[in-house]
Structures
1.
Amino acid sequence: MASSPITMMKMKLNNCSPPSTAAAARFLPLLGPHQIRFRSSLALFHNPSFPRTIITRSTFSSSSIITAAMASEASVKVIDGKKVAKDVRDEINAEITRMKDSIGVVPGLAVILVGDRKDSATYVRNKKKACETAGIKSYEVCLPENSTEEEVLKYISDFNDDPMVHGILVQLPLPSHMDEEKILHAVCIEKDVDGFHPLNIGQLAMRGREPLFVPCTPKGCIELLHRYNVEIKGKKAVVIGRSNIVGMPAALLLQREDATVSIVHSRTKNPEEITRQADIIIAAVGKPNMVRGSWIKPGAVIIDVGINPVEDATNPRGYRLVGDVCYEEAIKVASAITPVPGGVGPMTIAMLLSNTLLSAKRINNFK
Amino acid sequence: MASSPITMMKMKLNNCSPPSTAAAARFLPLLGPHQIRFRSSLALFHNPSFPRTIITRSTFSSSSIITAAMASEASVKVIDGKKVAKDVRDEINAEITRMKDSIGVVPGLAVILVGDRKDSATYVRNKKKACETAGIKSYEVCLPENSTEEEVLKYISDFNDDPMVHGILVQLPLPSHMDEEKILHAVCIEKDVDGFHPLNIGQLAMRGREPLFVPCTPKGCIELLHRYNVEIKGKKAVVIGRSNIVGMPAALLLQREDATVSIVHSRTKNPEEITRQADIIIAAVGKPNMVRGSWIKPGAVIIDVGINPVEDATNPRGYRLVGDVCYEEAIKVASAITPVPGGVGPMTIAMLLSNTLLSAKRINNFK
């Protein structure tokens, strides 16, 4: 999660409105582990197993179960990333309390920020806040734009050796005079909570191997599918975009779950035709409203990773955020969709916390 | 190339005959770097660039150019892996001579064989022979079945330190009492000519990164496409099979070349329908004749990695080798296809030699 899928692309407003205007759409009920029946005729929502969770103890509230029981097919539409992220953070919080009480260890996450990019500072602030809320101790280093590579490497080396730190995150992008690859590789693999190290990616790609960490945003996408009990095995999945931080690892994750995966990218000649075959679409391309209603097979499940600011004179900030999927069109065709904002976005930080907890547990051999 | 795609599966004869019986099929002409025009109306064969080669000097003979000029569309069918592999080996041989004359270095490949599996012994013997022919010095260690892990690790460690050795290959499978992953990881990444280390695979998956080595069989598949000037960029490619040694890295390689890639596997519900959309098919599943004519889009290019022995009472050995693709049906539909044997098979060892040369050049900083 060292960089963000946000593309500062601007465009004219089209007929796709943000989620807030799609007032009729109701939130898709979460499936809790205690729920034994789920009434839904949606083709993809028939996995009888309980949703897999990233940590073992679950704090699903009974209210979500009640909601599920009342849900009708027409209302099953919006995948509530905010809610899931909160559930995940609550679960992490409970696990951290258990670990602290049991062995006295508190997970620690170190974030290194170089330069004064406003967006990077915001991300780091949000991460810090989320850490505090979850009970993770955060260590923050802010270095000036003109710092040397050696200075950054020295901090990484210190954090590598620090037993209080279980995850190290270098906020990207780094200033242009620094070798990003060299700096990221300096983070020891056991603390690479971003999961961007090629060794991690290789293990993600290989059958029979387990990565130490799964990159946060794609992990969040899959977690949303799990929490909403979307069956992945044997389904056709299309990933739009092949970035190292989202598209590519998302495709590898879907394949690990036995989906039949196709990857659509800028060189794909007929993206619409290929996407229209998908039962599950993960869009991570950074182009506002690129995926139109006509691209979507009726009943498909859509995870929209894009967070694109587009001009909007009616908004006090002068812009609003939209996804890579034309939401207003998609919601008429898909069986479920993540809104932007409030879909994948909140999951990314939740997964960072999850990876940090995982690291602390592994380093301390705490089950 | 530590293990082979051969599956010792047996089946009854079906109506698919081996390449030798498809007498009408003629060999697809190779494209040489000096050829300036290539008459072909095949949709996929219109890449105007010269074929990329794995080493810079080319020894394409003028005869292949003449063949190309004479080729008619109807005859453009069989991709001659034997011929390409010979060309590659000749090119490697020339490069080795140049390096030896220039800096006095001869590439060295160490092969470790544990146990007395007959097939493994055959592979090792073939590799040794190919090394000798190409001018690569081979070092062979044969250990008894009941050797310890420590003994194997000691040999690997010695080869890691030996400046005469530029590639180390542990023949798989290892005896069951050994930890394959541990042993393979002991090979230093700079000498992992198999390219199976997760770090290599990770770098293969990531955009903007370069693996030190590409696994031999998938590298051979792509090399065949290049040598026959098959355009990959923007084409739909389907890889059947997702093994760590062929299918998965083949999919990553095709994606690096800007194909739109779909991966079909045992959990895919409609493999025929998906495969039929492909301009390029790489079949690496180990099931004799699985891909039938009806699975193939007219004009598709097929790389058949399978080498499956099937019962054949008419054959003195009692069996014959067939691919994953029903050759006799496929050749009526495809624009080009690799035969089995004589297609991908010979390329695998050629690519091992290529990787060993690459390693020797890199270690000695020889351009």
2.
Amino acid sequence: MNNIVNEINQRLKTILNDYPKSKVKEAMLYSLQAGGKRIRPFIVLQVIRAYNQNYHDYIDIACALEMIHTYSLIHDDLPGMDNDDLRRGKPTCHKQFGEATAILAGDGLLNEAVNIIIKTSLASDLKIALISCLYQASGISGMIYGQELDIENENKKLSIDKLNTIHHYKTGKLLSCAFQLGGLIASPQDVKVLKEIGYKVGLAFQIQDDILDVISDSKTLGKPVGSDASNHKETYTTLIGVEASQKEVDKLFKEAIKLVYSLSINHGLIIEIIELLWKRVS
Amino acid sequence: MNNIVNEINQRLKTILNDYPKSKVKEAMLYSLQAGGKRIRPFIVLQVIRAYNQNYHDYIDIACALEMIHTYSLIHDDLPGMDNDDLRRGKPTCHKQFGEATAILAGDGLLNEAVNIIIKTSLASDLKIALISCLYQASGISGMIYGQELDIENENKKLSIDKLNTIHHYKTGKLLSCAFQLGGLIASPQDVKVLKEIGYKVGLAFQIQDDILDVISDSKTLGKPVGSDASNHKETYTTLIGVEASQKEVDKLFKEAIKLVYSLSINHGLIIEIIELLWKRVS
């Protein structure tokens, strides 16, 4: 994984450096370089590799996805949203650059992700398919809808079904999109199965976040633990407890692995992603 | 103009109504319907008409541009930016729906504009050209950069050159994009001239804004007059006075008209836009 993540990090830096100097650009680069694990872009490229295809021509697609993910974190952290001071152990974008620049930096990442895809030398039809997949996953029928649901349901008693819906939109859509982007590039006929794998992995990932917010420490997590409780957010652990939540995580990852084996690919590369996430402590 | 604007308004409403029900969608629709003059989308369609082409297939492109314009207003009005309570005589989006939903509504409009273009039945190459033009104009080498410059230069003594630069990016880029989108659809070889017309009209338009902020009344303008002064913003009128500013407006519109006559088109339709803007009082 490390080599690919290094390539993604290097490319993100180069992409940003190609823009004219500005404070917004600095803020975008700051948040992009604030220690993200690059799970989503890694998935895109790893799926391509699982089809024995060369991933190097598609690094910019993976970077565009990471830009969208980073924009969502910047805006989520704003005083008008979750009002967080720390993200991955560092001051959040608005703490470092001021609120106005942080709003614009988020806008900038959401805006430029599409330009990065357009500037690749891929065929126009493929570009359109990739942009459509990404911006539907991130839009108001996807991640943004999830963010809205999340806000609307603070301080409310939730059912597991409702919580699943919030997680599906807020986290699952974009994480599943990573699998789908890889599929659109390497094997369009498998996109449906890859999408389903992505939803299972995405939900497991989010339940893990709920668990880590309870059992981890702030140093490992890079942000205060117990923030869900202090934000009066209902989570998997408040609804069914840590142990049952972990069982749900295990079940989802196992279901995802079963789907992986239904595809004619180099399974080990996708299993590597799942195991990496399964074992994560932050 | 009225018929076309009605068609744009109707189509914007239909586009939004096609999305699933959510508070973000309501907020997006609220801001889209808060009485904008639709100058930018009207320009796109009027340029197409000036080449004797049918504009009906391209209404969604015009709508996408208006969505981007509206997102920029929603985010500009936020407490973390200009902190405005009124826009076009109505409560701003965050006053009406709360800050979190307003942030997301802006994000939603920026995000969905590209999906609207993608969903049209135009050729992929044309879609790519239109998306590229729009998102470069709105991005960190365009409008967002202008918004950042605007913030950075509050309370600072400015030269006319610096002010022109701010106006060029903050207003000119997107207004010129309207002319360019029409050109890309109807006559790609004329895009360079149309772009130049757009920059001249855009700068004239912004200087008019500076003038109206001094000489108009808040009822006509739909927002408090004198807001530039109270925000400690240097403008054309503070730098060279109302009369010299108006002369600059007249000069720019005349130069734009000269460029219009250099093109082999139905000139009257573009002159109609310019005269409409020249005479505007709000």
3.
Amino acid sequence: MNLIEKYIEENKDRFLNELFGLIRIPSISSVSAHKPDMYRAAEYWKELLMSSGADHAEVFETDGNPVTYGEKIIDPAKPTVLVYGHMDVMPVEPLELWKSPPFEPEIRDGKIWARGADDDKGQSMMHAKAFELMVKTNTLPCNVKFMIEGEEEIGSPNLGKWCEENKEMLKADVILVSDTTMIRPDLPTITTGLRGLAYWQVEVTGPNRDLHSGMFGGAVANPINVLSKMIAQMTDDNGHITIPGFYDDVLEVSAEERALMAKTPFDLDSYKKALDIEEVAGEAGYSTIERTGIRPSFDVCGIWGGYTGEGAKTVLPSKAFAKISSRLVPNQNHEAIAEMFQSHFQSIAPKTVKVEVTPLHGGQAYACPIELPAYQAAEKAYLDVYGRRPLPNRSGGSIPIISTFEQVLGIKTILMGFGLEADAIHSPNENYPLEQFYKGIQTIPLFYKYFAEMSEV
Amino acid sequence: MNLIEKYIEENKDRFLNELFGLIRIPSISSVSAHKPDMYRAAEYWKELLMSSGADHAEVFETDGNPVTYGEKIIDPAKPTVLVYGHMDVMPVEPLELWKSPPFEPEIRDGKIWARGADDDKGQSMMHAKAFELMVKTNTLPCNVKFMIEGEEEIGSPNLGKWCEENKEMLKADVILVSDTTMIRPDLPTITTGLRGLAYWQVEVTGPNRDLHSGMFGGAVANPINVLSKMIAQMTDDNGHITIPGFYDDVLEVSAEERALMAKTPFDLDSYKKALDIEEVAGEAGYSTIERTGIRPSFDVCGIWGGYTGEGAKTVLPSKAFAKISSRLVPNQNHEAIAEMFQSHFQSIAPKTVKVEVTPLHGGQAYACPIELPAYQAAEKAYLDVYGRRPLPNRSGGSIPIISTFEQVLGIKTILMGFGLEADAIHSPNENYPLEQFYKGIQTIPLFYKYFAEMSEV
């Protein structure tokens, strides 16, 4: 048992308790009633960084939720790693589907079950504890900075400005983030691409009040019928998005890279079985991995209108609503796409209704070249712990702030994810295997070691 | 001031208080938590009929909500009028749109504001009080029976069977109902046609759990996207319903009758202004009055799925739901239509999802010939009170039980409605003008008078 393994073994229960304390704070950033919880989480992180060995830690105000910053500078001549994570989590509805309460972590079947167990409380906690390990065992080879924000799940609307204002303080050689997944527990992966995002709420108004569907049905446009037709028109029979100009800036991926992607282990039958679907769906001409990795998507995330209670109420409703999102790929500008959607959606509205479109959030896609020394340091760290060289992987998810870091701070990010697909992030019964939690804490110090060595060369 | 007017004037405040007592019982039949309120309403009606002059009144159990029956038999040789009404009301959501609490009646601007003020507590109360008036002034010329049910708003699922079982008790020459509207307060109308109804709930299931829209978006069918496309396909660009065979049994209305209908006063501009819509919508080739009067409709009454809370949650939901209804016209069989929809909707579902269709309720359309003596008695009664001969009118609404009465009891129904379109039935801020309430009580005894006279001939 080496030094790292020994330290983890001796402190594993305390690590878990520190994570549980963080999980118990219901820091849902999209619900304004949880604002006080965001401050509790920020203070929790401040204490956590100090007790883990930071020289200094501080809660910063922003125009939205607070950011916790902490650092340990061992030698200005050494390389600096900036760790990014987020303390906020997704909403937990539908509550009735959770097997244990979302904010009361429970260990079952070797996994931690709770909202945030993986995304991103579990994964960011690994960095705090790996940092503690290096400090307490006198093996820290780099300067370390932590930046933990509270608005990632709502698109990090204030972090870009905060980075801008604190550029000097945030100076670093690389940004290190664990907020992504590995393909399988025995197959480590480093995410080299992230999709961008655009997200809108639409409101369709027909008559100025709910109407009797008998007296008016057939003569007055029903906003739900109309909204359905409008949504239906947004994609064609080939799964293409019909917004004019939508694909203009999409970076087409070379045949060579697509051939490499095709080597990623993927079993369509188990994929379908795991989701209990008879057939997958998507853009014609692309594989499932390509559909989420290199192609944009169009999903209605929520829809509502009219009577949704028990039984049968006959009503021709006044309004219908939807939350609509599109995942974007490298080179698509989320602001341009947001405007494109807005004007296109307005343009296909019939004169029988009024349509309002409100952009809710967005972010750029991101790509990380595998030639970066920091990427190679991460590769070696995984190889040591997992016994296998990790595959580079393009994720379908979005961490909009990653491309902002590149634009504002000029620093590339390494996405060392330890999550698994089965972790059900954003869903009921989110979970995180204990093994991944501890292996993460074991892998991260090796990244620091190799990154420091490579930087000395 | 004649006898009728004098009695109303002397008792008008008490009449109103008796109505208010009924309104205060939140008898929402579609919500099972209100079951006890249905029994309270049934007992209230029993007391009301007894205190109004019935020989006998009784609350009958059914497989669903109770029915209150009461009668006064003055002479078996005289004609018998069977009054039908309903004590149940529609749900009240969205509550925040009500200017005063729905079950706390308030008088403002000469109107009663409350759920059920018109539909059908206000309109059925007129019959109880007109009955009292005739009893107390010794002018009752017919035998009278009352049948007040508690499931009209959910399609009267048990009343047909109850009628079947009580055929002898319910024997009558005509059924009299006030549950419809007049075109304008100065233009009385008698409803001669009612649309039928079919109503379904549909459930579309994609993946077996809510998914991260980044990890899966673009590769797995989104049930909201799919449901929208399915709903969109149900009507074409001409406003025709696309279910194969849907129009096969529709009774096409003659050019002559359509020419007559075209004479009904109707101002498209004020119609659009009242609803705050720029354009009406509907089946090509038919006027607005025809679209609701003689043509079937297809309306989504409710839709829901995914994240519908505050802010932006990115999710690819597991399920999407809709409540869908179709208003039917004479000669269409609601059961055949229900099956047609069910199999068609299933047939257009892609293999990427599972679709369940549950019929929730339905009823046949109805037509009343204007040659009936009872129709002519109603005409004369309105003429006396309103100074104008009423127009026959085809209503877009449904009272499914009316056609059941004809099938089971073999009795035609006269629909003497006193509601107005502005009464906002089924909507927030339902109301009923005091003037219509009192004029109704004044008109009904005249119907009995003329009907008795005509029956003697």
